[in-house]
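Please review this one:
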Amino acid sequence: MATQTSSQTSVTTSSQTSTRIIEMSKLYAPTLKEDPGDADIASHKLLLRAAMMRKVAAGVYSFLPLGFKVLRKVEQIVREEMDAIGCQEMIMSIIQPGELWKRSGRWDDYGPELFRLNDRHDNVFALSPTQEELITDMISGELRSYRDLPKSLYHIQWKYRDEVRPRFGLLRGREFVMKDAYSFHDTRESLQEHYDQQGYAYGRICERLGLRFVPVEADSGQIGGKVTVEFMALADAGEAEIVHCDCGFAANTEVAIAKINCELYGTPDATINEIETPIDGSIPALAEFLGISQAACVKALAGKDADGQVYVLFIPGDHELGDVKVSKIINGFELLDEQEMADMGLKLGFIGPVGLPRNIKVVADQALQNLPRWLTGANKAGYHLSGVAPEKDFQVDIWADLANTQDKDCCIECGRPLILQRGIEVGQIFQLGTKYSESMGAYYMAEDGNEYPFLMGCYGWGVTRSIAAVVEQYNDEAGIAWPISIAPAEVCVIPLALGDELETTARQITDQLAAAGIEVVIDDRDERPGVKFADADLIGWPYQVVVGKRGLADGVVELKKRQGQIKSELALDSAVTELINLIKADRAQYL
């Protein structure tokens, strides 16, 4: 892949101020003309092309000087918001004794994503994906009294997860930077107060990064706890699906409860009728054969729990089964394969609730509870039943929320259709309760003289992931368009020729901006103007000042604001003052 710039790293310092001036001729910034072949989404392509980072291995990246500047700025924003709510910064070890994870019960539960290693003495360790075990063990002998509480600690550090399919650059990596905070409390009220403060701080971080975001109800996953909110940056490249409503309701589709509109096939008082259906048994084929909507069909899925108990699950025909929702109802649930279904006497594509073997339990989505008659499989290849009445023709063992929420389902708060979008999870906050303190023996002495397990919260923010989220939201066909709050520099001054008054003028402007505390870079490379313009847009400097012969003859310089590619002319004698005012106003939007 061709490069446009490559040299040793260097910066100069203005004689009038401590603000450093970056000279492009000395900067290590090997930009790329073409998209890397293994990059699929905008942020992955552009962070590589703009010389922000380089791939080391699948899911592992090094940050180059420009990318490192962005990384440090994101970290500083996160740090400032954590400090503002009284959270204290520290640093913990990346290497954790395996014994701690065994005590918490997560050594086996976390699965193959946990990097495990042995030292020369055959002691077992884990590379940190998160720090609940380590910090709980640390404080258990040191926070002894309710008088010591609450306490909230955080650190910003590299984390490791052995993803089975690392992809999309910084969005799903095996090595990444995360801020994780942990709080310890003696009352639910104290935990709730700090949880709310963390949520406010996360909103502030999103705003200061310029992210369009939605806080959503979520699943706690491997971290645990029952109360959790994800902060989702809206982006088409996001791996998560969320639904939200203008009334304020928002949730991940994996956990969202919504009003699902099921359609009735036939009449409410119809009796059972067998229909010959010479089709493959899929819901789309059934709907097409009968000339009806998929919402008028009932979908059946067969599976078993960890103990081998077989279940048949029924959901609206136009929806998909929610794996997370099922996991909360049936322990270790997994779908049966075709042979297992045949061994149970179940007909793939034609399963129904009437005539099932007695040892099979029936679980039905709560949206079907108000549907008086169902159109289902007949447990007979090539046939379906209409007019099937729940509780009359068959019994349901469990009514539950099983189906993933989707676009146009209705909000449970106000009844309006939900909006489906994709999102990138940049942060998540959890109320853990006593999950870790109990399993790891972390107790404090209460005012009544008794010992109780700490109430805990944990709060994670993806630092490197949020960089990718920003690029997903701020890019165009030319490159990245950084918000000024985290851009590697605020202004790029571009002289169109070197060794004459154009360069002299450009350096004077650069020095004056630096003296005013503006982060400035000068493109002093011996390159064609087109190369300089292309790199400036690709890297994404928020403001570009172009010093050319024609403009200088007229006493003006050209100013381009990168977001929106907005161009204007500034009088040379007032250009620096006007630009400083513009930048200060721009900065203020992210404070």
In short: The domain at 273-400 is CATH 3.90.960.10 (YbaK protein).
